[in-house]
Amino acid sequence: MDKTVLLIEDEPNIIEAISFILMRDGWRVATHSNGVDAVGAVATRRPDLVILDVMLPGRSGYDILRDLRAAEETAELPVLMLTARGQTRDREMAEQLGASRFMAKPFSNAEMLEAVNDLVRS
Amino acid sequence: MASLNLLIFVSLIYVAFLFAVAFGAERAALRGQGSWLRSPLVYTLSLSIYCTAWTFYGAVGYAARSGMEYLTIYLGPSLVMIGWFWAVRKMVRIGRSQNITSIADLISSRYGKSTLLGVLVTVLAVVGTTPYIALQLQSVTLAVAAFSQADVTMRPLGDQNSTALWVAAGLAFFTVLFGTRNLDANERHHGVVMAVAVEAVVKLFALVAVGVFVVWGIGGGVGATLERIDASPLGTWSVAPDRWLALTALSAAALLCLPRMFQVMVVENEEERHLRTASWAFPLYLMAMSLFVVPIAVVGLDLMPAGENPDLFVLSLPLAEGRSGLALLSFLGGFSSATSMVIVASIALSTMVSNHIVMPIWLSRQAGGAMVSGDVRSVVLLSRRLSIVGVLLLGYFYYRVSGGSTALAAIGLISFSGVAQFLPALLGGIFWRGANRIGALAGLLIGGGVWLWCLFLPSFGPGVILSAETMADGPFGVGWLRPYALFGIAGLDPLVHGVFWSLLLNTTALVGLSLFTFPTPMERLQGAQFVNVFDHTAGARGWSGGMAQSEDLMIMAQRILGAAEAQEMFRRAALAQGLEGYLPEPTADFLQMLERDLAGSVGAATAHAMIGQITGGANISVEDLMAVADETAQIMEHSSQLEAKSAELARTARQLRAANEKLTLLSVQKDAFLSQISHELRTPMTSIRAFSEILRESGDLDVTTRTKYSGIIHEEAERLTRLLDDLLDLSVLENAQVRLTLAEVRLRAILDRAVAATGASGRLRLVRRGAEEMVLNTDMDRLSQVFINLISNAQKYCDAESPELTISAREMDGLLIVDFVDNGTGIAPDSQALIFEKFSRIGHQQAGGAGLGLAICREIMARLGGSITYLPGQQGAGFRVTLPMHGAMAAQ
Amino acid sequence: MTDRRPLFLERSSYRQRRLGDAARMLPVFGGVLMMLPAIWQRGEAEGAPATSSAMIYVFGGWVALSVAAFVLARWLDPSVTEPSGDAAGSTRGR
Predict the structure, then answer these.
(1) Between B808 and B637, whose confidence is greater?
(2) Does A92 contact chain B (CB < 8 Å)?
(3) What angle do CA B553, B558, B562 make, to 5 degrees?
(4) Which residue windows are transmembrane per the record (chain C) (predicted)?
(5) Sign of CA dihedral B534, B536, B539, B542
(6) Per-residue pLDDT tens digits for B559-573
């Protein structure tokens, strides 16, 4: 399994945690911690999966998702949305914009692994 | 010797002088200058019309015939004026507050505006006053005759009646001229009052002059005169007790009831406080008028030939002694007494006749009522003028019929007892709310009837109107109706008898019928207004001047007609009066027009009441109020309810809108806040959960990694704690629950503590300067919390190569200013407004703050009475903390 | 005396009320005083006063009453008893 995941998240501790979990599972993990050029990072890294935080400095995760879905190459790219707000409205919005999966922080590590693997398998 | 020609010449000069005085006073009053017209002295002097020719000539005759009895006529009124606090004050107050025009008006108004009562009082007053007017004409005629007798150069004056006629005509002319000069809002007759006051001085001066001449010129001084008195036929006290009592009471009543006294005392009263002067000055005036009566009578009886009319001693004594100048003065005194009485009495009577008899008849014959009556004024004027002429003619005819035969005193007393019949209705009306119209009517009818039967008709003498048989045996032989012995009780003095029975039956009827019948609502209202007049009219009120009234009228009209219409109407009215602008004089015409216009909007009664309220001060009559209540009460209530409701609705709607906006705002804020809280809490928890799971599930981790991950968990847990602390802190501050612990602290101490708390050893270099020695009276913990926040912010966010924070303190304009400026890039202008909001974190989050720090600082500074602001224009981020110096003192 | 300013309002209004009582009592007192002549002996009777004495009594009492009325009128505070100025009656339409 030599899949690449791009983690777009701004909290360094969370980046470290998710990276550790995924790498132990055999993923190659790339990180990006800035909203402004996140779309560009996706285009250059061409990951198999994107884990996208909603609250990013410079640009909202929703805007990034919208751009990803609008672009042809990334329209089908599996995107796991993470949010610390966890309100219903956020979930609806994410689904509407075409998020493949939505997870509220905090999550269990097992949950995270399962979701990621599901998304890549399907 | 005195010459009749000289007498006539001097009289004409005197009359011309009186005309000039009256004219001047009218002019001065019109120009608003005559403040001297309104002096209490003039008021007191005008009251002296109580002293008529009856006093001037008759008192001496009275004394010559009956000794000291004449004093009762002056003692009674003196006591009434001394007791002004009881009745006179109340009458004046009622007269002013109710716009009373005469005694008939007072009684009629009090008993529910009864037309019948007004007519009855007027008729009785005319009947009672006519003989009195005749008496004045007679006195002048007699005086002229006495002069002509003494004037040997003249042929004897043939026709005395022509003298009386000429006098009557002259008086009618004067009275019409000055008594009905205008019918403007002001019912007062300044000219007449002034002329009367002048005449009062003349008559007092004349009588005292004759008295002084008699006592010192003839009698040889006070002592000698007193001896002479005691030696005369009048030498001992000889007044019958019943007459002494009855006449004092009668004259006291007359002062209150005589139409002419009511005219000068109430209607012409300029200011109520004039009464307090009159209360002592009027008794003194009467005393002075009475003082020399007995000496003159005694000396006259001594010196004058038997059979000489003692009524004319005042005139004939100086004539007989060859003092023609003094006689002339005496004549003028008598002339003054007679004319002033006739003038005022005919004004008073004409007002009554016009208002209570002529006008009601005229109005009832007008189809349109008062609505079409632009010419009511002229009708009123005409009817008053005719009434004056009529009253004087009546007096003249009475004089012709009675033939001047009766003694002056007798006529005067009959007249007094006639008007005294008003007393029960008057006093009952102003002191007893229970008195009602039926009682007053019955009392007046019975009292008037008894007076007519027992006093007035017999006064013509037996056989003139009542036959001698009737006098002796009663009408048709009914013995108990004998005029001098009602109910068979004979042996009383005829006058005392008549006064006693008429007033007793009058009062009994008033009280009895008032007790057993019910008043109309109008009577009850009026009764309350009259009896409790001092409760309603206390204190100063009213309108300062004409223009002020116009302005008030305009304000009112704008409310009712609309601003544009009202302004246009006022402008046209002002233009018609030749004035510029929007404020016409509040003339009768203008008020009438305004009232008509207003009536179209609010109804006639309301318009009348409104205008009355503005132009007349408190003088809205109860009738007006009743009409207003009847006409508009329901409409008003309805519309005011509607208005109140719609206002209430609008208010509620506004409140709801505001509340809604606030709620929406709060909801948005709450959502944002909750979502912020959620984010701030979940973010550290995510790390904690993830790493704790890793540590639990992966036993193969090396120690370094383990330690690192545990460290992260610890760090994030601390972050969570900090966040919760901040949230609690902010909540307490925002709800103003914080309790400040104020103490005197040196600024340096606070800064030192803040620096120590932030672990100043870090990369950040601190530069401190300025007036740190200042002593503040503040909460040290809270202020240092602010400083800690600012310093740690600089530690976290200052992005300079070698970060540096400058803290400078100084005092400016009573404020303590502490600036915290670092050397970083600062905060972008569009973010500066946001930094003090909750969770507003600028830039990267690596510093781990929750974004509550500056929000907390702002709250703390507000609690401390100061402020914290972002200080733009520095090389880096700048914050300024400001505290008021009150409570902060410079160190010595 | 009208210008004096008492320390306590209560005291001054109390004084004014008593002065009002005095103003009301004065005519009663004067009436009794002036009715005394009614019970004098008269005419030729023994002890009937001479007219000169009667005059001195009556005129003396008269002046005394007037003086008392003067004093009361000066002491009574106008603001207590009547409206100040010519307000209510300045326009008297009818």
Answers:
(1) B808
(2) no
(3) 155
(4) 21-40, 52-73
(5) negative
(6) 666 667 777 788 788
Ordered domains of chain B (ranges, CATH): 4-365+374-406 (1.20.1730.10), 421-538 (no CATH), 546-620 (no CATH), 650-730 (1.10.287.130), 739-889 (3.30.565.10)
Rounded average pLDDT over B419-427: 93
pTM of the model: 0.59
Angstrom distance (rounded) from CA C15 to CA C8: 11
Alpha helices of B151-189 — where are they, by DSSP H?
Answer: 160-179
The pLDDT of residue B308 is: 80
Cβ contact, residue pair B237, C38, below 8 Å = no
- Where is pLDDT greater, at B26 or B376? B26
B736 vs C: CB within 8 A = no
Distance CA B611, CA B594 (A): 8
Q: Are B830 and B870 in contact (CB under 8 A)?
A: no
Given a cut of 60, is residue B105 above it in pLDDT?
yes
Give the domains, in start order, of chain A with CATH numbers. 4-121 (3.40.50.2300)
DSSP class of residue B455? I
- How distant is the Cα of B241 from the closest Cα of chain C, in angstroms? 4
Paired tokens of B201: 């001085």
Is the CB of A21 less than 8 angstroms away from the CB of B694?
yes
Q: Which of B244, B612, B615 sits opposite C38 (nearest CB)?
A: B244
Predicted complex ipTM = 0.90
Q: Quick one: pLDDT band at residue B625, thresholds 50, 70, 90? A: very low
| B237·C41 Cβ contact <8 A | yes
Q: Which of residues 62-91 of C touch B (CB under 8 A)?
A: 62-63, 65-70, 72-73, 76, 78, 81-91
| Residue B230 with chain C: CB contacts under 8 Å | 50-52
Asked if the Cβ–Cβ distance from B845 to A108 is below 8 Å, we say no
Interface of B with A in 222-281 (CB under 8 A): none
Is residue B84 less than 8 Å (CB to CB) from chain C?
Answer: yes
| Among the partner residues C26, C73, C93, nearest to B276 by beta-carbon distance | C73
CA distance B685 to B720: 8
CB-CB: which of C34, C72, C94 is closest to B79? Answer: C34
* DSSP labels, B813-869: TTEEEEEEEESS----HHHHTTTTSTT---S--TT---S-HHHHHHHHHHHTT-EEE
Query: Length of chain C in residues, anyone?
Result: 94
